[in-house]
């Protein structure tokens, strides 16, 4: 669980990010969950976009995906949300949270 101050820092870092994954009409499936897990392992902070043809609400998708992969929802605005998960991968630059 991240604090409010940490969430604010992650939001500021997430503003500059481009969405790395799109969730379409199929919603969350095994392939999208695996991809999201790999993206967060490599980057720690990632932005996701929910397409217009998706029937599910972006906030619900963000919460569901975060719960499945053990991440934290940083922000959800419109059809875009940002997730954070501390990576265990060696050799990447980790985000410093204070």
Q: What does the secondary structure layout of this molecule look like, with pairings?
A:
Elements: H1 4-15, E1 21-23, H2 30-43, E2 45-50, H3 58-69, E3 72-77, E4 80-84
Parallel strand pairs: 1-2
Antiparallel strand pairs: 2-4, 3-4
* Largest beta sheet: strand ordering: 1-2-4-3
CATH superfamily: YhbY-like
Strand portion, in percent? 15-25%
How would you describe the shape?
globular
Main beta sheet: strand number and arrangement? 4 strands, mixed
Radius of gyration over alpha carbons? 13 Å
What is the typical, i.e. mean, pLDDT? 93
Q: Kindly give the count of domains.
A: 1
The CATH architecture comes to 2-Layer Sandwich
Give the structural class: alpha+beta
Let me know the number of strands. Answer: 4
The CATH topology comes to Translation Initiation Factor IF3
Low-confidence stretches: none
User: Helical proportion?
Assistant: 25-40%
Number of helices: 3
Reading off the top of the CATH hierarchy, the class is best stated as: Alpha Beta
């Amino acid at each position: 669980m991240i604090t409010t101050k940490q969430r604010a820092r992650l939001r500021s870092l997430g503003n500059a990010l481009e969405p790395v994954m799109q969730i379409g009409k199929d919603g969350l499936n095994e392939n999208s969950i695996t991809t999201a897990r790999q993206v967060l392992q490599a980057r720690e902070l990632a932005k996701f976009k929910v397409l217009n043809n998706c029937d599910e609400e972006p906030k619900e998708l963000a919460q569901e995906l975060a719960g499945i992969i053990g991440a934290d929802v940083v922000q959800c605005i419109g059809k875009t949300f940002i997730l954070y998960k501390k990576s265990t991968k060696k050799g990447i630059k980790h985000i410093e949270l204070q």
